[in-house]
Amino acid sequence: MAPLLREVFFTLTFIHVFLHVADCVKVIVGDPFKFPVNCEPGESGTLLRVFGHNDISEVATCHSGKWTVKMYKDRMMINSSKIGFNRTEYNDGGVYELRFSKPKDLVQLEVVAAWKVSVVEDETVTLPCYFKTTGKAGLTVVWEKNGKPLCVKNSRSDGCSGTSDRLSMSTDWFTHGNLSLTVARVQPGDRGDYFCYVQNEHRNHSGNPAVVRLAVREKKAHQITTPATPVNVSELCEPN
């Protein structure tokens, strides 16, 4: 095999493995994150960061139930057998490999910036999200909170499926690319992080923005909804 073709083959194989094996996890920039691995007594292993083909660095090692941090020492937290970032930075996004006694696991961490929206209790608020739908077919929009779908909408449905009647999206979302979610009669329990993404037959894409962080204020006289404050632009969840 020619050197150029061999390099292309290995690159495509590397990308293919990550797209099909790595678990993709989104976290908001500045928030903490724990890796899904335990350093138990008698256990040994390594937490690695994969920057590219043949470019892998040790983040931390586990030996006899004790973590030893090699990278990000100012931000790495160890809580019992767990390890992770006490605060994430935007550049922390990427692929991490967990090499322990069991088969190695890949975690793709996507660090996203959230738009902040504040609303008074009992009022109506719109959580912004946009996606370029032109020339695309078979798309499904998904809004999630706490890992559970809140609103699922596609070209065959007119409203949010299987959710509260307080949630709605525009019926023209596909025409205009406006995937924004409207929450009516906001309650204190509605506060939290809302993730917006689009599904097609190949993979998931983050909406823009990928996350909206909703704060709910106690209802007082003459209070009105505060407009959304843009923080940053989300990126696709793709391997580095």
Tell me what the structure shows.
- With about 240 residues, the protein is mainly beta.
- It contains 2 helices and 18 strands.
- The protein has helices spanning about 5-20, 175, and strands at about 25-30, 35, 45-50, 55-65, 65-70, 75-80, 80-85, 95-100, 105-110, 115-120, 125, 140-145, 150-155, 165-170, 180-185, 190-200, 205-215, 225-230.
- The strands form 4 sheets. It has a 6-stranded mixed beta sheet. It has a 6-stranded mixed beta sheet with strand order 13-12-16-17-10-18, with no helix packed on it. Strands 2-7-6 form a 3-stranded antiparallel beta sheet, with no helix packed on it.
- It holds the Pfam family V-set.
- It is found in: Cell membrane.
- Keywords: Cell membrane, Disulfide bond, Glycoprotein, Immunoglobulin domain, Membrane, Receptor, Signal, Transmembrane, Transmembrane helix.
- This is Ig-like domain-containing protein.
Task: State the main characteristics.
Ig-like_fold; 2 domains; Immunoglobulin-like; mainly beta; disordered C terminus; 2 helices; disordered N terminus; 240 residues
Q: Largest sheet at a glance?
A: 6 strands, mixed
How many strands?
18
Order of helices and strands: HEEEEEEEEEEEEEEHEEEE
CATH superfamily of the largest domain: Immunoglobulins
Please tell me the total number of domains.
2
Overall shape: globular
CATH topology call of the largest domain: Immunoglobulin-like
Q: How many helices does DSSP assign?
A: 2
Which percent range fits the helix content? Answer: under 10%
InterPro entries: Ig-like_dom, Ig-like_dom_sf, Ig-like_fold, Ig_sub, Ig_sub2, Ig_V-set, T-cell_Activation_Regulation
Pfam family, one: V-set
Signal peptide: 1-24
Main location: membrane
